[in-house]
Design brief:
Chain A has 291 residues and is mainly alpha-helical. Chain A contains twelve helices and two strands, in the order H-H-H-E-E-H-H-H-H-H-H-H-H-H. Chain B contains 16 helices and 22 strands. The chains are: A mainly alpha (291), B alpha+beta (553).
Chain lengths: 291, 553
């Protein structure tokens, strides 16, 4: 299967599959990386915010010598800059948490499949327990017990997501454990860690890899939800989700821009991640590979 | 309103219905005949009870009624709604002057004795007459019986040595020392009816029997924290109440209250966020507002040697900078109240320099809110030994007062300009309150209301003394003996100009030391729909049917 991944990547050089969602996603990532350079204002630096220019409509010139292209929020933060900086938080949180959750989930799933018996039952019952609760509830409980903060959100997202990986990988690894190359490895008395990490894991990883982009999309949405509920990032460092929440209370007042633009940005981000994730899945999935 | 008494409400204030309502139906008759017919037919079928709603006043309130015991907790949450059922001996009008309620007159017969003459021909809702014995029962119930978690109303009767009823319409009260503002205390106390024997417990009141008062509306039904239904008391001693039925619905979310008012689900919604006022007006709702007799402020911990979250710019803990009045003064000078009032409160607030809005009795004419002066503030800070500024965590509740969370961030913007880095930290009010009491905060955003200037000064700035009851809200442990003496002296003077001047002088004296930074007096905003002709605002901010004038044909 490892070779299949490589083959799939080789067969489909990027020139051929460069789709609109990919371009959008790449733009998002570039914007996030370049935010401190291109954003007109640093919305996390109180010295750069002018309280008197709060709730300016899009296109109003600001004291900082630049236009408020998308207007300002109720505290005078430039919406465009808030989106750019919020993007950084959303991407860092979601990618980090998806990567760590995948790592933990993979290890747990493969271990469950390889060792079987009580290890399997213990890990999988934990997975069952967690998957029976709604993801948002698990994340909420985690945040409430751990306290707010960006690192805590990452932790909460890991707790909420690892089980999905574990269950998927276990089912693949279970079928792999019965194959003859595994018998051979065992007969050669290779150390257990080597069998797991060099033989079983690489051969069970493909479906999990396809899951990662989709789970990143979920993580962005989950972080935004938590921040929207006021349980995420600190109030003076808005992420996309809390920017939407800040503007939400102004929705009925005609100040549409405080909530609309961060909301659109968030929508575009999640949509492009999901489309790209779907692409990746299609290209890696043996059943949907074009003959 | 944290724990200081809510007190007034102009329950008996009956303004004359002014003018007549002009019907605004200008559309041609024929064009809307069909739709009118349709609406009538449809509503007839779908809402058979709609006709009844004609007489019913529906109020969406933020005040969450939690108990029917009027002596249990001294919170606007309870008193605002219970003021329909129970009445007080004395009322405060819109200018906070005392007016007769169940008592028609009162006078001090000696330094330590007061005499109240009661109103004749007043009956409780169960038909029994109101007598001096009921007043005696009320005072005894508060003093000797009710166990309230936060002291409740006990502080109002703590100075009373004995109370007697020489005849059914006279109450004589002996106090342990001179209590010149005793009548004011009675503007907070709801009078209950003496049952056969013993005292009514809070559980009894919450559970079964309808609460019996003398008020303009009688109790119909309730559900704790959700709703209260009232019916007109047709035997009321004053003007006949306007509404045959009143229903309060507790709606805690401001957006939901606004929505309920716009859709016509309710006739009145209180505590409207200032940002929603413009759009509400556009949709045809009417707005009434008044400057609240209350203060929101920044309070410093001035007692401890070091404070949590207060460090120099490199993160090293420093000695408590707020012990130095220069630092407090500098921070006050660097606070831009204009942004708070104009931007965050959308104009529905008054910049503050003292505990009550300027002009109310006991306020000082010398204190006016200043525009920020960053250069001078920075110089003061340097003089105090902090040329580079420092780092603080500014705590506050979220969603408790209008503009609370936003204010923290606006203050962070202001103070950054003199080098003070602020990390705003908000939490739900219950969490905030617990952590503040536990000493987790170095400085914080707070709010207080009270009947008069001296009540707030006494609670917020007098040296904390659990025995004597002073400094109940002085969480910063500010101690100033000279001020304590000035305040005590002012409080010993009879109500009147001399007392107010003494209070103003004490305010001048203490504010020069800047133990708190007054931020703003927010405005109470009430929105009302087409069936209400006018809503008379009161600085206290209760929401009552008595303040609501119906549209008359």
């Amino acid at each position: 299967m490892k070779t299949e991944i490589l083959r799939a990547l080789k067969k489909r050089p990027y020139g051929q599959v460069l789709t609109v969602p990919m371009i959008v996603l790449a733009t998002y990532i570039l914007l996030a990386l370049a935010a401190p350079v291109i954003a007109p204002q640093n919305p996390y630096d109180p010295l750069q915010i002018y309280g008197w220019e709060a709730s300016s409509s899009p296109g109003t010139p600001g004291s900082g010598g630049y236009l408020y292209l998308l207007g300002t929020d109720g505290l005078g933060r430039d919406i465009l800059s808030t989106i750019l900086y919020g993007l950084r938080i959303s991407l860092v949180v979601s990618i980090t948490s998806a990567a760590i959750a995948a790592l933990i989930g993979l290890t747990a799933g493969v271990s469950a499949a390889y060792f079987g018996s009580w290890v399997d039952s213990a890990i999988m019952r934990l997975v069952d327990l967690q998957l029976s609760l709604p993801t948002i509830l698990v994340a909420l409980i985690a945040i409430v017990t751990l306290g707010p903060g960006i690192d805590r959100i990452i932790l909460a997202l890991i707790i909420a997501q690892w089980a999905t990986y574990a269950r998927l990988v276990r089912s693949v690894a279970l079928s792999e454990t019965n194959k003859s190359y595994m018998d051979a490895a065992r007969l050669m008395r290779l150390p257990t860690s080597r069998i797991i990490f060099r033989h079983l894991l690489p051969n069970s990883i493909a479906p999990a890899v396809t899951l990662i982009p989709i789970e990143i999309g979920h993580a962005v949405a989950l972080e935004a939800t938590l921040s929207f509920l006021g349980l995420g990032v600190p109030i003076d460092k808005p992420s996309l989700g809390s920017a939407v929440a800040n503007g939400f209370q102004y929705l009925l007042t005609g100040q549409y821009w405080t909530s609309l633009f961060p909301g659109l940005a968030l929508f575009g981000l999640i949509a492009s991640i999901n489309f790209v994730g779907e692409d990746v899945r299609r290209h890696l999935d043996p059943r949907s590979r074009p003959v | 309103m944290e724990s200081l008494p809510p007190q007034w409400g102009n329950c008996t204030q009956k303004t004359k219905k002014e003018g007549t309502f002009i019907m605004r139906s200008t559309k041609p008759f024929r064009s809307c005949l069909l739709s009118m017919l349709l609406i009538v037919v449809m509503s007839w079928n779908i809402f058979p009870g709609a006709a009844r709603a004609q007489d019913e006043l529906r109020i969406a309130t933020s005040y969450k009624l939690m108990t029917l015991d009027p002596h249990y907790a001294n919170l606007n949450e309870n008193t605002s709604l219970l003021s329909h059922i129970y009445e007080r001996l004395v009322y405060q009008d819109e200018k906070l002057d005392l007016k007769p309620g169940l008592a028609v007159s009162w006078r001090a017969t000696s330094e330590t004795q007061w005499q109240f003459k009661l109103r004749e021909n007043v009956r409780f809702h169960d038909g029994s007459p109101f007598t001096a014995d009921d007043v005696v029962y009320t005072i005894e119930r508060i003093r000797d019986f009710v166990k309230s978690p936060n002291g409740g109303f006990r502080s109002y009767v703590s100075g009373i040595k004995s109370v007697s009823a020489p005849d059914p319409l006279t109450v004589v009260i002996e106090t342990s020392g001179p209590v010149p503002n005793l009548p004011l205390s009675f503007s907070s106390i709801f009078v209950m009816h003496r049952p056969g024997q013993g005292f009514q417990t809070t559980q009894e009141l919450n559970a079964g029997h309808a609460p019996v008062g003398t008020g303009p509306y009688r109790f119909e039904s309730w559900s704790s924290g959700e709703m209260l239904k009232l019916k007109r008391n047709n035997d009321y001693w004053g003007d006949k109440p306007d509404w045959p039925e009143v229903t309060f619905r507790v709606i805690e979310s401001p957006a939901a209250r606004v929505a309920a008012l716009t859709t016509g689900d309710v006739d009145i919604a209180d505590a409207i966020p200032a940002r929603d006022v413009a759009s509400l007006k556009q949709r045809g709702a009417k707005i009434a507002s008044v400057g609240a007799a209350r203060i929101n402020f920044i309070q410093f911990d001035v007692e401890r040697e070091t404070l949590p979250g207060v460090t120099d710019k490199s993160g090293v803990e420093i000695a408590n900078p707020f012990k130095n009045p220069l630092v407090r003064r500098a921070l006050a000078m660097a606070t831009d109240r204009g942004v708070l009032v104009d931007k965050i409160l959308a104009g529905y607030g008054t910049a503050a320099a003292q505990v009550f809005p300027n002009g109310l009795p006991g306020t000082s004419a010398n204190l006016t809110p200043e525009a920020p002066n960053y250069e001078e503030a920075k110089a003061l800070l340097a003089e105090a030994g902090f040329p580079e500024g420092f780092h603080v965590v500014l705590a506050g509740p979220a969603g408790r007062y209008p503009g609370d969370g936003e204010s923290l961030q606006a203050i962070a913007q202001s103070w950054a300009r003199i080098g003070v880095a602020v990390q705003p930290a908000t939490s739900p009010f219950s969490v905030f309150n617990t952590r503040r009491a536990a000493g987790d905060y170095a400085l914080w955003y707070g709010g207080t209301s009270g009947e008069t200037v001296d009540v707030i000064l006494h609670a917020l700035l007098a040296s904390p003394d659990p025995e004597g009851g002073s400094g109940a809200l002085n969480f910063g442990h500010y101690r100033n003996q000279a001020f304590d003496q000035m305040l005590a002296k002012a409080q010993s003077i009879e109500e009147g100009l001399e007392r107010n001047n003494a209070l103003a002088e004490a305010t001048d004296f203490v504010m020069a030391d800047q133990p708190i930074i007054p931020l703003y007096h927010f405005h109470h905003i009430v929105g009302y729909g087409a069936r209400v002709a006018a809503y008379a605002m009161h600085p206290r901010g209760w929401t009552t049917a008595m303040q609501t004038l119906p549209v008359t044909e």
